[in-house]
Amino acid sequence: MSNPHNILFLCNGNSARSILAEALATTLSHGRFIGYSAGAKPVGQIHPMALELIKTMGYPLQMLKSKSWDQFGREGAPRMDLIITLCDSATGEDCPYWPGHPSTAHWGFPDPTTVEGGDEAMMHAFKQVEMGLRNRIELLMDLPVTQLDRDELNERLQSIHHRIQFDQ
């Protein structure tokens, strides 16, 4: 097997959507992709409902930490092949320099932590985000990533989001 592709999922708080994506990318791909997550303004803790869903995936919870995206722009950080923003506010932020000019896309999802109506409604929102991420990551795994140039890969990553968005 060739070297795994590193994917950084970005969201402002790095407590829910990006954390779910990190765990999904790593577990679903069986080593082909390694998911990472970070935020522009990390809240410093992972939402308990995200942890509950991730536990069912078998992803090691001790690997998860709410962290700043700055650490991935530093010398010695893992080199990212793909960067995917998951919240609309993260796409407008001034991102750090990413060594290697990774492919990028925006897969916007509403923040499940802001859903009102009690725990049941919030868990439903978390499950919707998890399913949306799962569907997109499964399509990503079908892409011939090493055979596409950066522009083609950017286009394909973005088309995955739009295709699923309109199919739902």
UniProtKB/TrEMBL annotation:
Source taxon at top rank: Bacteria
The keyword Amino-acid biosynthesis is annotated on this UniProt entry: no
UniProt keyword list: Arsenical resistance
Annotated SMART domains: LMWPc
Domain Phosphotyrosine protein phosphatase I: 5-143
Record-linked InterPro entries: Ptyr_pPase, Ptyr_pPase_sf
GO BP annotation list: response to arsenic-containing substance
Record-linked SUPFAM superfamilies: Phosphotyrosine protein phosphatases I
Name of the protein this chain belongs to: Protein-tyrosine-phosphatase
Organism: Polynucleobacter arcticus
